[in-house]
Amino acid sequence: MKDLQGKFVEIYETFADPIYRHCFFRVYASGRAEELMQDTFMKYWLYLKEGNVVQNPRGLLYRIADHLIIDEKRKYAAESLDTLIEETGFEPSGTDRTEGKALLNEVMRELAQLRDEERRLFIMRYMDDLDPKEIAEITGTTANTVSVQLNRVREKLRKHHDT
């Protein structure tokens, strides 16, 4: 049990921030993103305690988080983007406060142009730095399908940005 706890702590320290960011950019609410991140790790811990062996902790964590977010979206209607930006208080680290808010606002406005599934793929690839094979594992599709969908999302964002 002690070895299991040590492995869990190591996984938590490695993936807590990336899972939080993933949740935040999907729900646009820092408090709720924190709760979803914690729920993700709680489910992961329970899965480990049942004696299950995890070959790809990163993939499993993103899959758990993804399912929690989908459940979340089914429960609550989305709020307006401007209200969410004002309420979150989220600031990317390593940037000056004004620059960080401007960048976050721009990113969130661009992401708001995407359908939920498009936004989900974009966030996994470019914010969570998952490769198409990992995304395919999480979403239950193929790496080729993910790559094609990502190309379409990039093209859609490019066209929207150019207008």
Structure notes:
- The protein has a domain at 113-163: Arc Repressor Mutant, subunit A (Orthogonal Bundle), CATH 1.10.10.
- It contains eight helices and no strands.
- It has helices at 2-27, 30-49, 57-75, 81-88, 97-112, 116-127, 132-139, 143-162.
- Helix 1 packs across helix 6 (116-127) and helix 6 (116-127) packs across helix 8 (143-162).
- The chain is globular.
- With 163 residues, it is mainly alpha-helical.
Summarize the structure.
The chain is mostly helical and 163 residues long. 79% of the residues lie in helices and 0% in strands.
Task: Evaluate the radius of gyration.
Answer: 17 Å
Low-confidence stretches: 77-82
Q: Estimate the strand proportion.
A: under 5%
Provide mean pLDDT, rounded.
81
CATH top level of the domain at 113-163 is: Mainly Alpha
- Could you estimate the helical fraction of the residues in percent? over 70%
**Would you tell me the structural class of the helices and strands?**
mainly alpha
For this entry, give a set of tags.
Arc Repressor Mutant, subunit A, mainly alpha, 79% helix
